[in-house]
Amino acid sequence: MKAVLPQLVDGAMTVKLGGRTIVMHHFIDWLKPAEIAPADLIITGHTHAIVNELKNGKLYLNPGECCGWLTGRCTVAIVDLDTLKADIVDVHE
Question: Three-state SS for 35?
């Protein structure tokens, strides 16, 4: 997969925004505990299955899929970094 889509497998990306630490990776199973530890928000993809769960003070988020090819739903997530809550929004019905 690295030869085809290297940006998906080069490890986690961490950004700081709104006083929060956000960790993003295409594959949740590839995240290391040391990458998750400082995160307030963990955003992943790959499965196209919606995840919006607060666990141990961290928001785990997979917004689903914006194209709707696999699930029939076109979804995105809107995150409030102050409250660490996310809404999953259907963008096309």
Answer: helix
